[in-house]
Specification:
The complex is a heterodimer of chains A (132) and B (146).
Chain A (H helix, E strand, L loop, with lengths): L16 H15 L14 E2 L3 E2 L6 E4 L5 E3 L2 E3 L1 H14 L5 E5 L5 H14 L3 E7 L3
Parallel strand pairs in A: 1-7, 3-6, 6-7
Antiparallel strand pairs in A: 3-4, 4-5
Helix pairs in contact in A: 2-3
Chain B lengths: L17 H15 L6 E5 L18 E5 L4 E5 L5 E3 L1 H10 L11 E6 L5 H13 L3 E6 L8
Parallel strand pairs in B: 2-5, 5-6
Antiparallel strand pairs in B: 2-3, 3-4
Helix pairs in contact in B: 2-3
The chains are: A alpha/beta (132), B alpha/beta (146).
Amino acid sequence: MIRRKKRPSLIVPTSSMGDIAFLLIIFFMLASTFMKSANITAEHATSENIDQQDAALVSITVDADGKIWFQGQECSSMELESLMGEYAQDHTNKPVHVLVDKNQPRKVYMPVIQAISASGVKMVLTGDPEEN
Amino acid sequence: MRLRRKERRDASMDVSSFSDIANLLIIFFILTTSLVHPWGKLLEMPSASTPPTDQSKAPKIPTVNLMRDRIVYTEGEGQGKEITMNELNAMLLSKKFPELQPKDRSVVLEVAEDVPYQRYYQTVTTISATGGVIAMIESEEGGGSK
């Protein structure tokens, strides 16, 4: 008796592709944090003595116009003091990231640094590494 | 008479486009996610709970007077000395701050009114990198050219 040779199937099973794709989406949704300062323009200060830090939990930005932004919301230095007081109650050990436009004068950046310092919260002054 | 069989409705849903939608969402998240860690320096400030040191026993606290175009370094009651940023770095490194207690690592930073953030940032990160704890004072004078 002659047995007919079985032909291998040429169809690739793609039914599970959708499931894999959705698992990837869930991963990215859980792992990503959206930038709160995407629409804020500030020229970064540079230094040789900085290193890479962990991602920011809270960020404070002083933009090119001298406006203060706390987590993407504009605020005054007085409001920042009370916001930092609230933040300090739960997160003393988690530092806030501070980005200040490099051309700002002392009267703009110093109240921000003093407000954070007075709350007892640690701060990371962010900038760009200086190229030699 | 011929009986007509009732047509059954197809209950299955067309899901073939779901994976395309999912892939589009993945591309969106890949493009909007930032995995880059920011560059910066953790600033160590003196804590309010630290007991004040006995001034007679305390080592001479270095004072850095930061002005727009120069840096004046003073130690204790001594005479101020004009130095560069590199010299400040070398001077503070010689103090071996990491081996000392936090209360003995204080560096007083006096900032003049006309100092832009870029210059302040470089000074503060230099002091922090050597292990110094920054105590800040605002200077009234402008501190322009001599």
